[in-house]
Amino acid sequence: MRGKKRISFFLLLSVSFFIFLIFCTSISIFAASSDQQIVWQLASWNTSQTVCTLMINSEIQPGEQEILEQCGPEILFEWQTTPPCDHIIENQNCTGLFLRRTGPIISQNEIPEEKTQDSIGAFPPLRFELVDCLPSQLCQQIPEIQIRMVDSSAFTSFPIKIRIRMGTFEGECESSECRVPLRVTGEQGEWLYYWTMNSNGVQSAHHRVKYRVLPDRSDPTKYHFDLLSRSYPDFIPPGSDLWGLFPASYKPVSKMLIKPDSKDDLITNKPYDILCGKMIWHGLVDPSHCPGFGLMGGESANACGLESCSGKLFEWQNKQNDRFYETGKKYNVPPRLVKGMVAQESQFWPESDIEGEYGLGRITILGIKMLLDWYPAYFNQLCYAIFKMQPNRCGSCFSEMETKDQNVLIGSLIAKTNTVEEIDLITAAVKASASQIEQIILNTSEFPLEEITDYESLWKIAVANYYAGSGCVQRAITSTYLYGYPLIWDTVKNYFGFGCEKAVEYVDRVYSLWE
């Protein structure tokens, strides 16, 4: 992460703190209020059928913005255009929608296990299953999903039903197993919500998955199916678990971002001249028969030196492939991308000549802070492991810790460089970068990600962020947005200005590893 030292420290600190403050605050608000959500329903005056269920963090009636976010523009418009109804009891002349409060959400894990059978708030767990087609396959018909209650016979105190919402449709299943055909969607798919509700109107926590069903261009009777679900993690494209975005269906995905089938898919054989030069200087190869002892001035190897290094070069650049593969699966980050970034940072030579840069990824203290700020799960696991005898030292966010405790965590991660844990550290930092750029974009634009950017652009911006830092990325995204351009890489890259322009070249070099 060499580029992070090129920008003004105070500018970077202020921009990063502003962005992270929102991120950290949102985590705290969610954690504090998730147990107090109230369920409201928009229902039809004519039929009394529910058309949308909303979850609100207070007893206050939901507003238009909350209806838009949770129910969509069509239902919001119908709600806005509903005329006043003065005959609520007879309601013969009432049209449009009305709003009703149904009860609180009770999470299953709030109920003590020994009381689940008799508790009014107890709900059986739900299992989400695919019926006849797996994601990333060409389905012979519209794919179906099944949602069923597990051990529902133990919950007999109050009748419990499964409810499902897809887009503007909301319905209830008549049995403990609910089989639902999905719908053809647009390019970015749609969310499917499912939950349980008892006869008193008390609901379980709402679960959601995102799916995409598109007719095949050559045979419209068949369908391409994609899914973002924790129940099927192997089918989630890298990064989609963060962004909720699918890769474009109308063009091939870059090989860089495709999950490899095994570590052998990560084998490369590149003539790294700087790596060879390091090997020569450290006596790992014998280029004595070469002009200039195999060196081309400085530390780079000449053609003869590279020939002398060929066997070692192949071994050296591939000896971490198993770690790239495993950590890529662990964090759902493209292993080829991480290997490409290491190739550009260090050419796989572990020792840095620049003070303040560490290991194969040349990670800096600012890069480690980004990891701990923008990957809360990683921070929590590390913090509670380091301070296991004093867990109170682990605040809700890294930025809220005392400086001395922050330095302990930073030091523990620097110690992981040049060890077997280093690739894990680098891969987690790349995921943190992907998380940070999402928040930068959301802070800049009022539009959802799928309307202003795309899957591959997000990964390229994340790579640039790892290299150049959030100050450079923030300015590039803000300038692009102010000029009215979409936040895709082909436009954003034109706004990496003075001191940041090398980020574009860096991204191109990372991607060139697999071209």
Note the gap between the termini.
23 Å
Calculate the mean pLDDT score and round it. Answer: 85
Shape: elongated
Question: What is the helix fraction of residues, given as a range?
Answer: 25-40%
* Biggest sheet descriptor: 6 strands, antiparallel
User: What is the strand arrangement across the widest sheet?
Assistant: 5-12-11-10-7-8
List the helices and strands and how they pair.
Elements: H1 9-33, E1 38-44, E2 50-56, H2 64-71, H3 73-80, E3 97-104, E4 126-130, E5 137-139, E6 144-149, E7 160-166, E8 169-172, E9 177-181, E10 190-198, E11 207-215, E12 223-228, H4 240-243, H5 273-281, H6 303-318, H7 321-331, H8 335-346, H9 365-374, H10 376-386, H11 403-414, H12 422-444, H13 449-452, H14 455-468, H15 470-482, H16 489-492, H17 502-512
Antiparallel strand pairs: 1-2, 1-3, 4-6, 5-12, 6-9, 7-8, 7-10, 10-11, 11-12
Written description of the protein model:
It contains 17 helices and twelve strands. The chain has four domains: 1-27 and 253-259 and 334-344 and 354-515, no CATH class; 38-104, no CATH class; 108-236, Immunoglobulin-like; 267-333, no CATH class. It has 515 residues and is of the alpha+beta class. The longest helix is centred in the N-terminal third of the chain and has 25 residues, at 9-33.
Short summary of the structure?
By secondary structure, the chain is an alpha+beta fold.
Record keyword descriptors for this entry.
38% helix; disordered N terminus; Immunoglobulin-like; three-stranded antiparallel beta sheet; 12 strands; elongated; 4 domains; 515 residues; alpha+beta
